[in-house]
Amino acid sequence: MKKWIGALFALVLIIGVLAACGPEDETEEAATESNSDGSESADKPEKLIVWEDQDKGAALEDAAAKFEEEYGIKIEYQEYNITEMQENMALDGNTESAPDVVTMSHDGVGPSVVKGYIAPIEVSEDVLSQYTESSVEAFEYEGNLYGLPKATETPVFIYNKELLPEVPETLDEIYELSQEKLNSDEYGFLAIWDDFYHAHGIFHGFGGYVFGGNNDDSSDIGLDNEQAVEALEYIQKWYDEGLFPSGIIGETSNDQMNGLFKQGKAVAVQNGPWAFNDYRDAGIDIGIAPMPNLPNGEPVGTFMGVKGWFVTNFKDNQEWAQKFVEFVANEENAKVRYELTGEIPPLVSLLEDEQWVSENEGAAAVMAQSQSAVAMPSIPEMAEIWDPMQAAIQTVATGKAEPKEALEEAVQLIKQNIETNHGGTN
């Protein structure tokens, strides 16, 4: 009897062990996946929520479908105005609608890190080597990387091919051409340098700088040093000599410049890729090139904006969210996005592709200019730069102040605002 009971008990144990190793184990196995280093990935979510730029969702669909096919994770995307991403994350970050992945411009990195919205990522050198160095650096903050590049933009040299058959090597040459146009109803080169975004390239090329360190030390502001004064003196002469018409200053400056160029009354302008189609639609046969060098031989270090993909801190799916960021930003998917949206991916392979460069003049020029461009500082203190610097340039351009005096006053105000609004300097 005892033997029979013992055998029965053993059989029950065996059945229990087999049951424990049944469908539940298979489910757990299906819910995990191994990483390339052999470690086990986190549990696979059913879906990832992605916040995409407004009117750009169609460019995400192909990559989303491929990702779902490869990993079995559905991508659910929503479109928002990219300038409002931080505001939307503040509203929905702790709700079921919170995103796993967002797209933002790089100048939102610092504020988003400070507010705890986005998480640092670690990717291999093979992944990073796909992109230009400057575009990757745009997503670094306090020693960590927070995103991968999606698109880049920066002002370039746009010219009327009927009026300028060959791109000058230096701004000195275009300066002389502008002088020749004086006392006529035409202009040579035009730029809205009273706006610091567009003037930054001149300051940087002469040796001025916004913040020290890696553009993240707000205790070191280089906008009133000797080189910055020299830069503003250079800008000043374009206004003093009438090479820029009086209307190209203040709120209407952009409209005035674009109007003259589209009427065929200006040889060339400094503007960004957002203006290409507008000029073409006006019937101008435009050529596009990197900015000619400054008189000192240095490149014009234009401000560069980089859009990217970021993993948020709102969900527990960060490992899979990063997989999607790497996937959607890879070379194949970035090329598809460019074809559908015109957004220019900062891919090294495209710059090295002579056929692509010849067939995509504007995009190639933006990418080439990006090599010497400077990513706008992404620290929160950057918000205090714009108004004082614009005011300084405009007072000089209108003859109300001299460069040294105007810049010293601007930097003093910037420091005061940083102290007041950000609790001091870094």
User: What is the molecular shape?
Assistant: globular
Total number of beta strands: 14
- Give Rg in angstroms: 27 Å
Give the low-pLDDT segments.
Answer: 1-32
N- to C-terminal separation?
A: 83 Å
Proportion of residues in β-strands:
15-25%
Look at the structure and give the mean pLDDT.
89
Q: Output the number of helix runs.
A: 19
Q: Give a short account of the largest sheet.
A: 6 strands, mixed
Q: Which structural class do the helices and strands define?
A: alpha/beta
How much helix is in the residues? 40-55%
Please specify the SSE layout and strand pairing:
Layout: H1 2-20, H2 23-31, E1 47-53, H3 58-71, E2 74-80, H4 85-92, E3 101-105, H5 109-114, H6 125-128, H7 133-137, E4 140-141, E5 144-145, E6 147-153, E7 156-160, H8 171-180, E8 187-190, H9 196-206, E9 209-212, E10 217-222, H10 226-240, H11 253-262, E11 266-271, H12 276-281, E12 286-289, E13 303-311, H13 318-328, H14 331-341, H15 348-351, H16 354-359, H17 361-370, E14 374-375, H18 386-397, H19 403-422
Parallel strand pairs: 1-2, 1-3, 8-11, 13-14
Antiparallel strand pairs: 3-13, 4-5, 6-13, 7-11, 7-12, 9-10
Helix pairs in contact: 3-14, 9-10, 18-19
